[in-house]
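Example S7 (C-alpha cells).
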C-alpha cells in the first residue's frame, strides 16, 4: 500500500476514535478502527490499547447496563458482531476471525407466543486471553472460552470450553490440547 493511502486510512481511524470517544466509548490508548458501527449506548464499550477492529465490526448494546470490553492487543476481523444485553468480555491478545457472532443473550419461547414476546435471557459471555476464534464462529450466551483456546471455523459454541484446547463443530466439542 502506498504512503498516501496508509496516511488516509490512519487519519480516518483517528477520526473515528475521536468521534466514538466524544460519544462516550472508553478508549484506553491507541486503537485502529476501520468502518465500524456502535449504534447506541456508547458508554458501555471499553477498548484497551492496541485493539484493531476491521471493516464492518458491529458492537451492539441493548440497554444502558450492557457492556462490551475488548482487552489489549486484540484483533477483530471484518463483519463480526458483538450483541450484548448484559456483558461480553474479550481477553488480551485474542484474535477473532471474520463473520463471527458473539452474544450474551437469547429469547425464551412459549407455545403460541411470537418470538419477539419471549423474555430476554442473559448470561455473561467471556473469551479468554490469547484465544483464536476462527471464521464464522457463533458464541452463545453464558459461554466462557478458556485462555489460549482455539475454536475452529464454523463452530457453534453452546457450552464453556476449558483453557488450552482446540474445539470444533456444531455444537463445539474439545478435539485436543493446543500443542506446546
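Recovered sequence:
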Amino acid at each position: 500500500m502506498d504512503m498516501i493511502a496508509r496516511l488516509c486510512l490512519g487519519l480516518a481511524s483517528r477520526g473515528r476514535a475521536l468521534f466514538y470517544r466524544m460519544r462516550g466509548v472508553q478508549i484506553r490508548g491507541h486503537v485502529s478502527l476501520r468502518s465500524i458501527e456502535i449504534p447506541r449506548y456508547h458508554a458501555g464499550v471499553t477498548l484497551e490499547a492496541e485493539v484493531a477492529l476491521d471493516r464492518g465490526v458491529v458492537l451492539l448494546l441493548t440497554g444502558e447496563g450492557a457492556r462490551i470490553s475488548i482487552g489489549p492487543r486484540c484483533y477483530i476481523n471484518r463483519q463480526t458482531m458483538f450483541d450484548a444485553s448484559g456483558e461480553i468480555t474479550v481477553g488480551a491478545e485474542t484474535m477473532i476471525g471474520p463473520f463471527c457472532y458473539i452474544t450474551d443473550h437469547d429469547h425464551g419461547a412459549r407455545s403460541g407466543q411470537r418470538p419477539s414476546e419471549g423474555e430476554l435471557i442473559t448470561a455473561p459471555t467471556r473469551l479468554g486471553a490469547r484465544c483464536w476464534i476462527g471464521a464464522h464462529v457463533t458464541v452463545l450466551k453464558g459461554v466462557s472460552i478458556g485462555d489460549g483456546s482455539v475454536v475452529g471455523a464454523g463452530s457453534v459454541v453452546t457450552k464453556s470450553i476449558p483453557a488450552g484446547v482446540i474445539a470444533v463443530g456444531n455444537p463445539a466439542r474439545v478435539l485436543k490440547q493446543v500443542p506446546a
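Notes on this example. Residues 3-23 form the longest helix (21 residues).
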